[in-house]
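We were asked to recover a plausible sequence for a given structure. The inputs and outputs are reproduced exactly as logged, with field labels preserved.

PROBLEM: sequence recovery
POSITIONS: 643
GIVEN STRUCTURE:
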């Protein structure tokens, strides 16, 4: 099948050959095998399901939690003349009906849905009539409660497999620990284990830690030294994205800021300027980067500690996608660890506070108890929090926990252009134009500029249409709403605010409960990930790459020789073999008993004393060796990672 797959890759995507591992994954899917693909950020995961889906008869069902990525991929497929659609919150009922009909009547090759959609009665009835050729699950780590982004709706994905019993599953993710890899396959009911995984090692990307309370000086120094390519700076706070971008700009570094709170048009503009190289640096929250494939990112800097090594690995991994040397810097201070622990505690508010926030939310949105299911609301956290004197992070954390219980769904600020569908017949529309000449010019303009408006919802721009009609945008919108009320069309106005969807009826406050899996177990797992970040920052004796690879299950990786730890080690003028030999001899001795320094140095065989002393001093400095109450050397029991 590889020949057909390669021809398809060339025909639609223009590539002569697959990237490493992609072809093996495609062949596995085409052979009908359940498959789990672990590919690094930028490794081309979408090709792994899009190519086999194009080869096989039928439609690929893609499950993803990322609405923005869902919409981007659908637009990209349509540009390739591949029929695709996405179902997400906020669609007009008639839009949903059109998409379901397209899927059932074999007019689509790809249907993207959120995991919550799979359990609705409408979807289950429709899937029985769809010709599904592949079930692709993106961000599949979300199915594991041991993963860093567990989402309970993912647990229900396997429930649809009895309706499509012969259809293979392809699960995809960029990062997963060995524990999560096992869990994904079990939860998705793989017929047999089948994992495709490349090494997480990025030989061209160097990870570095800089400890400095003054973060601005090392930040500026790194970008002054970056003579080519572009960079990304990650921070937690939206306000700081603007402050740091302005500060860099004032120092001669062309920089821009990006966060989910900005107007969609402005986000698109700034992203475009950065992609084209007009702006050298993008300062952003973690809202930036998902699905962006810019090859020449030479520098990725984190000014705040990430919540997990998975998140850090993905964000840092946006550097060096062209295979050229790139750097990732995490600039931190002691206060960052304190702040990280504080954020962790805020992320798990008490049940009484979660209930209070849920009660206030129902009142704020004016939803009576027992109603509200599937309703979508414009919702800005800051406005709500201020109205009820809650902390913003506290509200966000409570909503995310309620989301995991399946009670609601919070979508970040997302740009949704206006959409229009003419649902009357051409004959009725002609009668309208004859009887009411006022609407004649508008209808002629719509029909001329928006082909397909009779068969599907099309995106429209009210400002552009009103300008051509020599009227105001407000007047045009009122006219469209009037025609919708009369039954001629369906009009969905544009949205730029975050959306909150009630997934179930509003419950009485006392009925709100949090399952052990979604609260207690999650808190324990999150604490473990937090500790892994702190250990990574504090461990100045083991190669940064080795630490990261060990976390993801690669236990015997070689040190990179280029990170801050390795550079420090290299200054010893000892080869890796010499250092390994000395440290192994010391470890063997000192695990038996403690030794005075002079005696330990003299006991090491095969090396002059000055080399052994250099190694000992370095190992003491890095806390691999410690001294007891009698000033004798001991092996530090905390050092468990292979050097």
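RECOVERED SEQUENCE:
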């Amino acid at each position: 099948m590889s020949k057909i797959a390669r021809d398809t890759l060339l025909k639609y995507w223009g590539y002569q050959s697959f990237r490493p591992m992609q072809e093996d994954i495609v062949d596995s899917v085409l052979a009908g095998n359940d498959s789990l693909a672990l590919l690094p950020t930028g490794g081309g995961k979408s090709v792994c399901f899009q190519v086999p889906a194009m080869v096989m008869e039928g439609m690929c069902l893609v499950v993803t939690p990322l609405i923005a990525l869902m919409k981007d991929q659908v637009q990209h497929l349509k540009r390739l003349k591949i029929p695709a659609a996405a179902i997400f919150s906020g669609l007009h009922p008639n839009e949903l009906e059109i998409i379901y009909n397209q899927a059932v009547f074999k007019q689509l090759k790809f249907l993207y849905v959120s995991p919550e959609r799979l359990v609705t009665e409408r979807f289950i009835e429709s899937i029985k009539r769809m010709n599904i050729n592949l079930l692709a699950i993106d961000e599949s780590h979300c199915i594991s409660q041991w993963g860093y982004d567990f989402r309970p709706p993912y647990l229900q994905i396997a429930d649809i497999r009895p309706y499509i019993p012969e259809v293979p599953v392809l699960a995809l993710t960029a990062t997963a620990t060995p524990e999560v890899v096992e869990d994904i396959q079990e939860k998705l009911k793989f017929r047999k284990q089948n994992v495709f995984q490349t090494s997480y090692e990025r030989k061209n990307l160097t990870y570095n830690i800089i400890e400095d309370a003054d973060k601005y000086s090392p930040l500026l120094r790194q970008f002054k030294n970056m003579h080519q390519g572009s960079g990304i700076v990650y921070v937690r706070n939206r306000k700081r994205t603007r402050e740091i971008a302005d500060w860099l700009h004032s120092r001669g570094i062309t920089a821009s800021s990006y966060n989910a709170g900005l107007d969609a048009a402005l986000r698109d503009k700034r992203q475009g300027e950065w992609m084209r190289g007009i702006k050298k640096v993008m300062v952003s929250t973690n809202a930036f980067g998902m699905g962006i494939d810019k090859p020449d990112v030479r520098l990725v800097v984190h000014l705040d500690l990430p919540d997990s090594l998975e998140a850090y690995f993905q964000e840092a991994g946006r550097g060096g996608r062209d295979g050229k040397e790139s750097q990732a810097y995490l600039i931190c201070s002691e206060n960052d660890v304190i702040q990280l622990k504080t954020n962790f505690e805020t992320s798990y508010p008490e049940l009484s506070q979660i209930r209070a926030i849920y009660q206030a939310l129902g009142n704020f949105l004016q939803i009576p108890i027992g109603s509200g299911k599937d309703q979508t609301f414009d919702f800005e956290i800051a406005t709500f929090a201020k109205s009820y004197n809650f902390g913003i992070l506290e509200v966000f954390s409570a909503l995310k926990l309620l989301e995991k219980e399946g009670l609601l769904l919070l979508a970040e600020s997302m740009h949704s252009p206006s959409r229009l569908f003419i649902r009357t017949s051409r004959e009725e529309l002609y009668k309208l134009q004859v009887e009411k000449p006022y609407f004649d010019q508008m209808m002629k303009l719509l029909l001329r500029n928006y082909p397909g408006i009779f068969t599907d919802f099309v995106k429209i721009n009210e400002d552009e249409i009103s300008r051509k009609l020599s009227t105001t945008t407000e007047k045009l919108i009122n006219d469209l709403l009037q025609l919708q009320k009369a039954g001629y069309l369906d009009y969905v106005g544009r949205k730029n605010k975050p959306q909150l969807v009630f997934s179930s009826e509003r419950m009485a406050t006392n009925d709100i409960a949090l399952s052990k899996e979604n609260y207690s177990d999650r808190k324990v797992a999150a604490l473990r990930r937090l500790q892994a970040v702190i250990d990574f920052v504090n461990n100045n004796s083991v190669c940064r790459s080795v630490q990261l690879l060990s976390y993801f299950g690669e236990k015997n990786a070689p040190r990179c020789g280029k990170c801050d730890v390795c550079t420090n080690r290299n200054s010893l003028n000892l080869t890796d073999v010499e250092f390994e030999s000395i440290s192994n001899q010391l470890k063997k001795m000192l695990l038996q008993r403690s030794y005075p320094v002079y005696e330990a140095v003299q006991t090491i065989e095969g090396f002059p004393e000055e080399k052994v002393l250099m190694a000992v001093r370095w190992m003491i400095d890095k806390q691999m060796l410690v001294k007891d109450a009698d000033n004798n050397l001991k092996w530090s029991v905390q050092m468990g990672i292979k050097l």
